[in-house]
Amino acid sequence: MKTYYHSLDGLRALAVGVVLIAHAGSPFPRSGSVGVEIFFVLSGFLITGILSREFQESGAVSRKNFYIRRLLRLTPALLLAVALFAVLFSLTHHYFPTREVAIALTYTANWAEALWNLDLGAMAHCWTLATEEQFYFLWPFVIVALEKTIKTTKGKALALTTIALALAGYRAAVVGSYSPARIYFGLDTHMDGLVMGSALAYFAAILRTSEKSRSTSYHILSWIVVPASLFVLLALMYLFKWDSTGLHQYGFFLAALSSVAIILDLTLSPFSLIQKPLSLPPLVYLGKISYGLYLFHYPLYHFITEVMPDASFLVKAPLKIGLSILVAALSFHLVEVKFLTLKKHFAKGKNATE
What we know:
About 75% of the residues lie in helices and about 0% in strands. By secondary structure, the chain is mainly α.
């Protein structure tokens, strides 16, 4: 049975908050990259937990049902966001943005930006959706292969950790050879956070079932490691833009590692100092609508900037963020929830196939 952690929605709220504030034009954080990395680690953690539990319970994974559940979760809000973008763009530019719409709907924005350096304007943020969707397509195959070939949970965790380290090393090695855009947007050079989150899913499973007392370890995690991790994330937000060499060489890895420590603390430690603050209802709610917030904010931001070019940051930023929250909330309650209720018809384990 999947356990729901309110604090993870709170963490989502902080992650999307980093993106919203950065894109609004604030000097800090210097980009939304750290927020995106938190999302990547969290996605890898949750998706791998779902897939591994399904295999362990039924002996197989229904890829069809998994893909349909992802479709029901992701597509309705994406269609709305693309429609909103197309309308706003057509109003201000007087032609239909066929290229941007096609790239966003086909989940290819990351490669369009990585390989051809295409400027997707208000749909440029869809590179993250493309990266995650490509990961979601591959990952059921990876988890089934892992479950079949490696018998121990520790072995699976170590295998994924090795893959994550190899991917991080590969990215660091190609800095200077690949362009910053190729490194930042490419799946192969920006998926170690997703894989680190996946490894965490197995490590967490080990810790949950361990009979050994880990009181001292959890004290160290909650009172030393997590504050240090938060400091690292804040430092990365202060030091690096999305195309900074240091971010690509070691920053993404540190952000992912810090996110791993925070997620471990929120889901396992009885001494967590941040679990209660991140479980506050306003943060939990923002976390629930964070997908829509991420999707809608960029086209809305672009539109406000175009129609209010001379307005100050103090005027535009609250308007951008407030309107994004409003539109995301309407999307969630009026549209997304209806599709989320359909997911139960494609529950994991039904008609599972290897």
